[in-house]
Design brief:
alpha+beta; five-stranded mixed beta sheet; two-stranded antiparallel ribbon; about 20% helix; about 30% strand
Length: about 80
């Protein structure tokens, strides 16, 4: 008997009112890092993944539906409905 285990992913919503948000700005918005400089270092060191792949571009544009993860937490970009 083959058993498949799926990890339940509880993503934290990142509401935006614009078309996109840059990765480092999303990290600052969610208070994951204390400053833009900290975000830059964490991203460039390869500690952040976007849509399942390591991303080292701090200016990476994230659109509604995109996910990024950092230190085991998963964040999903959502439209806050005001745009």
């Amino acid at each position: 008997m083959k058993v498949t285990v799926k990890r339940k992913e509880n993503a934290i919503s990142v509401p935006i009112s614009t078309e996109f948000i840059k990765l480092e700005s999303a990290m600052k918005l969610m208070n994951i890092v204390p400053s833009g400089g900290s975000a830059k270092l964490e991203i460039q060191e390869g500690f952040v993944s976007v849509n399942g792949e390591v991303c080292t571009m701090r200016g990476k544009k994230l659109y509604p539906g995109d996910k990024f993860s950092y230190e085991g937490d998963v964040f999903v970009i959502v439209n806050d409905g005001t745009a």
